[in-house]
Amino acid sequence: MSEAKSEAIVSVKGLRKTFRDFWGRAKVEAVRGIDLEIRKGEIFGLLGPNGSGKSTTIKILLGLLHATGGDVSVLGKSPSSVKSKERIGYLPEETYVYSYLTPRETLMFYGRLFDMDNARIKERTQQLLEMVGLTHVSDRQVGEFSKGMARRTGLAQALINDPDLVILDEPTSGLDPIGCRQVKDLMLELARNGKTILLSSHLLADVEDVCDRVAILFNGEIKAEGKVEDLLKETDSLSLTMPSVEEGKLEEIRQFAAKLSGGAVQVDHPSMDLESFFVDVVNRAGDEKGEMSGAASGTDIAEFLKNVS
Amino acid sequence: MRKIGAIFWLTLKSAVRSRLFAGSALLLFACMAGLPFLVKGDGTAVGEARVLIYYNIGIAGMLVGVLALLQACGAVSQEISERQIQLVRAKPVSTMHIWLGKWLGVLCVNAVLIAVAGTTTRAAIWARGLAGDDVKAEVLTARRRIAPAEERVEYEVDHLYLEMKEAGRILPESDESAIRQQLKLAIVSARTTIGPGQQRRWRMEIPTGTAPKGSGGTELRSLFNAAYRDEKPMLCSWRILSDEGDELYSVAPAAYMDGLNRLPLPEELVTEHSSLVVEFTNEETRDGRTVIFNERRGLEILVNEGGFGANMFRALLVVFIITGLVAALGLTMGAVLSFPVAVFASVGLVIASLIAHFFMATEVIPHSHDGCDHASHEEFQLEIGEKMAAGFERIIGPVFSQKPAELLSEGLLIAWEDVAGTALLLFVVYPLLLFMGGALGLGRRQLALPESF
Questions:
Q1: Which of A248, B3, B145, B341 has the highest count of CB atoms within 10 angstroms of its CB?
Q2: Strands (E), B165-218
Q3: B398-431 pLDDT, tens per residue?
Q4: Which of A149, A179, A201 is nearest to A278 (CA)?
Q5: Which residues from chain B sit within 8 angstroms of residue A85, using beta carbons?
Q6: Quick one: closest CA in A to B10, which residue?
């Protein structure tokens, strides 16, 4: 990890959150003493089953909920600081955008909340709409959209300010496999460009594909934390990939390997995962595509997000 | 400013797309256009024009006020319940930006609706052919009303009360405040009653800024009744004196019928003097009768100062200011409470204010006497109720003292300085207090609580 990446963007110490009822009686202890540190340029995954405290933690980081105890610092400031939010992009677990606005109006509206000038907002809006594949429906109201299209609008609004910290809560929820892949590619691209990403998900494959480090939450506590490869590495076995050979030679290899390792050797063909296969098929079909009413595939990352900060 | 502008634009967009707005705008237009064809005045064009203006402006104020309250209550609370506020608050936006942007948005909607109401009312007056000379002179005008300075009667009340007490005409267990109230009414009543051969003087303060239009129309208007009905007129005379007692203008004894009487005055009287003394003499004659001046509008000087259009604009401006305050109240309630609770609380507050104002204005609550030892629980409760109502009245009195529909329909001037004073209090001071409460409340509120909380 480079020197630049060692700067802590999010720092959480002993975070606790208890939800109380109208009379002030403690009802749910959603977060029970979490310690976290997310460093600049990394993709940090917050994993856990439903109700484990992922979204609560995120909402505390954004100042939408008040912590019951502990210290929280986001970009060096308190979560309630208006100033720090200038550098944050947020996509909630549901896309809470205004149904009566079009995607273009939505992006223009959120852009203005960042005090950006109109020319820049327009330019970024166009780039983001292209990036999420909504250019051809940019003047339809979001209320008429499918969940996935609304999600793409939500994702675009999270990036309108070219944020340094992107907080994505279940970003692939409601997206088709191509959309999921694009979001994952986008996260990797953003991280390469120096952005820090906090990803909350219960889709393990998503997290495994993109995250540098993860924390697994259960019942409001961190049960495991570390680099993905360290957590998943099985140090007592090996896999070897090579071009296909005829059956006789394969048997020879198996016997040789068994002799060397002194244990059972398993040989099979590596398989493509279903997501990659799906993307491959749809991309090929896309070459013959006509007019589409839904979201298009989208393009590469928006130009303004490529600037390495 | 761009942040406030963005939220303002969003509020407008939301209002324009809402069925509540469309329905209210339609209802307002229907009322404004339809009411003139339903109302009947006193059979005269002047009466019809008065009723039309009074009801149209009154109903417009009420409808826009209700819509403003509902819209403002929902502007923040519904965004919280539908969770869009989470995305807004995750941006660099303070609660002050949100409150102000929303308020300006609701104000803009109010302004559009009030403008529609004003234009429709003006068109209705024209459509009903209510533009004759008498209507122009009495209703479609803007006359400054100068009423007699309020006379203090406390000294006379004290004197009479002590006199009665010493004479043993007051029982020890009597309610002192009730007796004083009765004495006050008797004194005021005696002052408005002038017998044959008697004289009465009123002091009139001329407000600074009184500027007659220059086309005449300045007049002394009196409204009195004879003690008993008779076909024969009464002989009365008027004199206008300076503060020092110099005669400035006089009218020789002439015949007057009971009812409304008008006496044209030279404009210099109100431009060259800061106060005038009006003297009325009920001349002693064989057919002389006692005259009783109307308590509310017995005597007034009317100065024609401007046109109806500008006056109507100011009346609508006052309506706009009041609906703006209502919107501020709704917005603050909506910032700290859920939508139905905010509406309930706001409406409850308005109703409580109205009741307090009614009781204080009509003095239905008898004033408890000083030094009372609260002999009964009921008396104590009454005193608490009175104090609460008085407190309420002190706060909301300036709101209910605004009568734009009444003044406009009477052809009375709504002066710019009055509008400015109203605006300062009801459009700046009160909303500022509500704004601070609303912004603070929203800032302290947790905006992403699970639904069950």
A1: B3
A2: 193-194, 199-205
A3: 888 888 999 999 889 998 988 999 999 999 999 9
A4: A179
A5: 90-93
A6: A109
